[in-house]
Amino acid sequence: MIEPHVHDFEGRPWPFKDDQFADALTTIRVLEDEEPILLVSHDADDGMWQVLCGTTNEPDDGRLTCLGCLLELDPTLAEIADLPRGWEAYRDVVGGEWHREPSPADEE
User: Fold this and answer.
1) What's the CA gap between 56 and 14, in Å, rounded?
2) CA distance 66 to 37
3) Could you report how far apart the first and last alpha carbons of the chain are, in Å?
4) pLDDT at residue 35 tops 90
5) Nearest to residue 18, comparing CAs of 67, 69, 63, 64?
6) What is the b/e burial string over 11-43, where b = at least 16 CB atoms within 10 angstroms of the residue's CB?
7) Per DSSP, which regions of 28-98 are E strands?
8) What pLDDT, on a 0 to 100 scale, did the predictor assign at position 10?
9) Distance (Å, whole) CA 100 – CA 27
10) Which residues fall within 8 angstroms of residue 70, CB to CB, at 6 or more apart?
11) For residue 52, how many other CB atoms are within 10 A of its CB?
């Protein structure tokens, strides 16, 4: 369980339909090594957000955090706040255009 805490969105409104404390999966490399967020998926089954750098798929590198902490880390995530369940968004660089498509795992 994530400990209660406060977010600072620097006056920006909360863009997601999900609560700012909704669980989100990311990696240690995003949280501690400041790797850029380049891939985001919104799971079809449980609605969980996966906010990833694309550098690791190792289970030991996974970290549970909240959506609000990730938006603080990268405010450009607001651009894909309307990403439907079962879809993913990706980009080549931070600040680059987000491309959206149905998640391959959810097409089956």
Assistant:
1) 29
2) 15
3) 31
4) yes
5) 67
6) eeeeebebebeebbbbbebbbeeebbbbebbbb
7) 39-42, 49-52, 62-66, 87-90
8) 87
9) 21
10) 24, 26, 30, 37, 49, 51, 77
11) 23
> What confidence tens digit (pLDDT) does each residue in 42-73 have?
999 999 999 999 998 899 999 999 999 999 99
Distance CA(31)–CA(39), nearest Å, equals 14
Q: In DSSP terms, which residues pair with 98 in a beta bridge?
A: none
Q: What is the DSSP string of 93-104?
A: STTSPPEEEE-G
Higher-confidence residue of 10 and 81: namely: 81
Query: Would the pLDDT of 107 be above 60?
Result: no
